[in-house]
Amino acid sequence: MPVYVALLRAVNVGGTGKLPMAELKAMCTAAGFSKVETYIASGNVVFTSAISEAEVKAALEKRLKAYAKKPVGVAIRTAAELAAVLKANPFKKAPPNKTVAIFLNEPPPDDALKHAVGRKNEELRWGTREIYVHYPEGQGVSKLKIPAAVSGTARNMNTVAKLVAIAAQMTA
How do residues 102-144 score in pLDDT, each as one tens digit? Predict the structure, then answer.
């Protein structure tokens, strides 16, 4: 059975989008997902499901909208796709807590990086359905805005590595 990782956008960040991870786990179980495991309180959940990625996304977004009373963005990756994101990180020598993958639902447009504003010394690179960003001074102080990433959700490489490890345990 496929292992999926769901990455929720704007959950438990800066006091917005409050969603206890026990609630998220219950939603996933109610959707028929198995082996559900959440990781830190920022909307990361790993599970197995026999349905397609699109069906997983739709089922989870429906439940999240009912809970939050507004749409909650979700990026879905298979265990293999998430492992590929970690492997493809172009900033492997940078501290993993200062390097993120911004997960998108579609490949970034060809001109996505050209439209980034507020850039100081941040480095940006494409992924398949991701934009990688290295924030040398930290993400919290950066003024970088990437219009193509507005509907995406970012995870630092430490989080990506932990989610890859959890997913790998489920595939073993």
Answer: 999 999 988 888 899 999 999 999 899 999 999 999 999 999 9
Q: Is 8 exposed, middle or buried (0-12, 13-18, 19+ CB in 10 A)?
A: buried
Please state, in angstroms and as integers, the Cα–Cα distance from residue 105 to each residue in 40, 122, 136, following that order: 22, 23, 26
The dihedrals phi and psi of 55, each to the nearest 5 degrees, come to -70, -40
Label residue 162 by pLDDT band (50, 70, 90): very high
- By the 8 A CB rule, do 15 and 35 touch? no
DSSP result, 66-123: HHHSS---EEEEEHHHHHHHHHH-TTTTS-GGGEEEEE-SSPPPTTTGGG-BS-SS-E
Residue 165 CB-half CA count within 13 A: 7
d(CA 153, CA 33): 22
**Position 38 pLDDT exceeds 80:** yes
Q: DSSP assignment, residue 125?
A: E
Amino acid code (one letter) for 58: A
| pLDDT for 156 beyond 90 | yes
CA distance 135 to 141: 9
